[in-house]
Amino acid sequence: MDIKVNVRQLDGQQRDICVLDLNGEIDVYTSPKVKETITELIDQGHYTLVINLENVRYIDSTGLGVLIGGLKRVREHSGTVNLVCTNPQIKKIFDITGLVKIFGIYESEKAACDNL
Amino acid sequence: MRQSLTAHHAKRDPDAHLVELRIPSSAEWVGVARLAMAGIASRLQFSIEDIEDLKLAVAEACTSYIQGAHERDEICMSAEVAADRITITVDAAGQNADLQRAGTAQSESGVGSLGLFLIRTLMDEVSNEPDPESGMKLVMTKFLRK
Fold first, then answer.
1. Partners of B23 in the beta sheet?
2. So what's the pLDDT on residue B66?
3. What is the pLDDT of residue A73?
């Protein structure tokens, strides 16, 4: 029960886009690590983020809270966060919490980047 | 001497099986409660989706207690496994926990209320019940779909 976080900066884009690849489970134990990474990126001036949840097997309210917190902060700088999510169970959590209306949620990284 | 959670189940179904788990109230143990829940739920013919719902509900309940707990507190989970349903009770030994309060209190990210919302959405029946030991306990039931 761990989370691996990898950050990539996309080259050749008109905008500065950072992609966070998350792999594992996001819960009360692991979400501080995700929060720390997002906070560091925003502090460094990266306000356009794609968070790839394709390899996330589980997310709870603390994980959702971290994503919401990140979105709030980038929006203060006219930025945005798009998500990549293909796991039906994870999608369901975004659906029932109404967060599908807050985040752009896409089936692929390309679609998430194209719609920033 | 630690009191068994069985004492909380005065009204329980005599034919149901009872499984109890006690974990330290710290974040790294929530995953253990989640895995235990998956194992218990798989004893019935719950779908994968329902098992995921149960895991999340248990984890949210534990998380709510952890956010208001002291370091040496413990969280107690018991699962009453009947033929057509599973009833899970979560409470915190050693603290005067109030999940209703924890669930509505706005933490930095508003997690408390979101967690309780998820529990209420994913489970079929949810209630807070007063408990002489822990203040309040959360009781939640999911029925087996036919």
1. B75
2. 86
3. 96
Q: Is A36 touching B (CB cutoff 8 A)? A: no
pLDDT value of residue B64: 87
Residue of A nearest to B59 (CA): A60
SS3 category, A95: helix
Judge whether residue B86 has pLDDT over 80: yes
The predicted-structure confidence for B8-21, as pLDDT tens digits, reads as follows: 555 667 788 999 99
10-residue stretch averages of pLDDT, chain A, 116 residues long: 88 81 96 96 95 96 96 96 96 95 95 92
Interchain proximity B34–A68, CB inside 8 Å: no
CB-based burial, B17-37: b 16+ in 10 Å, e otherwise = ebbbbebebbbebbbebbebb
3-state secondary structure of B126: strand
Q: Does A57 touch chain B (CB under 8 A)?
A: no
Q: Do residues B102 and A61 make contact, with C-beta atoms less than 8 angstroms apart?
A: no
Give how far Cα B122 sits from Cα of A19, A53, B56, B119, B132, Å. 31, 21, 8, 5, 27
Residues 57-76, chain B: which have Cβ within 8 Å of A?
59-60, 63, 66-67
Is residue B57 within 8 A of residue B35, CB to CB? The reply is no
